[in-house]
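Fold it.
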Amino acid sequence: MQRAFGVGRVSFKAPPSPNAPPALDELYQEGAAKIRLPKVYSDMAEAALINTSGGLTGGDIMNWRVDLHANTKAVISTQACEKIYRASEDTARVTNDLVVGENAELHWLPQETILFNEASLTRKLHVELAPSARFVGVEAIILGRQAMGEQVESAFFKDSWRVHRGGKLLHADELSLSGSVAELSRNAAVLNGARAFASLLFVAPEDQEVLNARARTLQCEQDRAVTALSAFNGKLVGRVAAADGFALRQALIPLLSGLREGYSLPKLWNL
């Protein structure tokens, strides 16, 4: 059966002048993976990742890599939500490799991934940070679009995060949903009926008290979303569960804006 395959790589180097955005160092596109570079007016470069196949199903493979050289800043997003369709066999595989150099700052902000009924997705996120690097990352999942009447009764989703700083493991996260996802998500210890959820990570060379204060400042309650933040071991970790995709994004926007310290979200994120 015909399968989608894509490889995309982008890297940035130090800007040619102060207050200018980083300069493009490498751009590689293969297969269904495309990368676009919107014009920016700050010291942070921007790249939008595009899967031209229109979605993923079992057996599809997408590999992305982002490299930031020393003293560069960049935000990486996606053109749209990634759709994971029903898989008749095998699983879709997505690998994201991110490398952030000294005094560099990467904001990894893909839009939501939508799982359809009987979808199958295995995704890996590998991040290598220099000791002085900064990182903001989010991955969000929507279990079917409520406005379209979509129900996800069963699916397979495995998400693996590994983040190293200075060559040492800083953060490891394994998330897995399989089988009767509808029944599992109703469990109070899992999603308590929520249809959308997200994982957040913020890493910076700051004192633990600064991270603790930031977690307290960002902690908020919303009618249709629940947010939990914890700061420890030089990182801030967050989970968000929401009634639907719209409520999830409403909760994520202020959180990400706060973590990004004055940088506006990519226009692709506008509701």
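The chain has a mean pLDDT of 92.
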